[in-house]
Write a structure and sequence with these properties.
heterodimer, A: 134 residues, alpha+beta, Thiol Ester Dehydrase, Chain A, five-stranded antiparallel sheet, 3 helices, 41% strand, B: 147 residues, mainly beta, two-stranded antiparallel ribbon, 40% strand
């Protein structure tokens, strides 16, 4: 079980254009800034960028993969700080900031970040997971 | 430009009802590189006590909502600033989820690239029996001069 101060990650990955297109299709978000370089540049961007919600989804995936079996996500919130482009090497990690018990449940509070490797966090978030107290 | 009516802050939209399909959950989980069978394999999901395939945590964002009363955002140049979910009873394939949305707050701030408008909107998804499925809050940033 998690203890205060436990860390997970860093989990390294690289987003591909294919993933952006798949995510556009699966989420129904067809904003051209996520698949059309020219139109993305027309909006003052350097080229296509990843959906914020794709980044948040990847963070949630890692969070659930790293969580104790049977843990359930109660709350997850993020702040999108900078953009992520396909081909950028990214890394996802987290830290347990507090553990508390109430109502027969143990709750872990975590900080989760998605960063472009060797850079500042592109997305920073906080999550609460709980599981039945043993 | 953001157009909004401060008198309509908190006014709930018409509910929009969604039937949650297995294919939609699988495609969404696949797009995120998920491998947990709870998102793909009905038998395994049921073995774990779910009534259908479990929807991943950020899936609720894909559920369309009706227009937010009193708010009109520009068609382009809107940046997603923050996103938050609180979860109730999990969403599974076969569930029918009703989503309502409302405007929470509009603020103007001085940013490094000029004035920007921060729009906070919330939505709530409910199961058919009225149990809360999720509550979500989004902050959208609109830069000045965007039409």
């Amino acid at each position: 079980m998690w203890q205060e101060g436990d860390e997970f990650g860093p989990r390294d990955m690289v987003l591909t254009r294919e993933q952006l297109v798949r995510y556009a299709g699966a989420s129904g978000d067809f904003n051209p800034i996520h698949y059309d370089d020219e139109r993305a540049r027309g909006f003052g961007l350097p080229g296509v960028i990843a959906h914020g919600m794709l980044n948040m989804g990847l963070m949630a995936r890692v969070l659930k993969e790293e969580a104790p079996a049977g843990a359930c996500l109660e709350r997850f919130g993020v702040r999108f700080r900078s953009m992520v482009r396909p081909g950028d090497p990214i890394t996802i990690g987290g830290r347990v900031t507090a553990i508390e018990s109430s109502d027969g449940k143990t709750r872990a509070h975590l900080q989760v970040t998605l960063g472009v490797r060797d850079g500042s966090p592109a997305v920073s978030g906080e999550a609460v997971l709980s599981w039945p107290a043993s | 430009m953001v157009k909004y009516d401060p008198d309509r802050i908190g006014e709930r939209s018409e509910p929009r009802v969604h039937e949650i399909e297995k294919g939609a959950i699988r495609r969404f989980a696949e797009a995120l590189g998920e491998t947990d069978p709870v998102y793909f394999d009905l038998e395994e999901a049921e073995r774990q006590g779910y009534s259908g395939l479990l929807a991943p945590p950020t899936f609720p964002f894909t559920l369309r909502r009706n227009p937010i009363p009193g708010l009109r955002l520009p068609r382009a140049g809107v940046i997603h600033g923050e996103q938050e979910f609180t979860y109730g009873r999990p969403i599974c394939s076969g569930d029918v989820i009703s989503v309502v949305s409302w405007l929470e707050d509009v603020k103007v701030r001085e940013g490094s690239r000029g004035p920007m408008t921060l729009v906070t909107a919330a939505s709530e998804g409910s199961h058919q029996d009225g149990t809360m499925a999720f509550w979500a809050r989004s902050v959208m940033i609109v830069m000045e001069g965007v039409e």
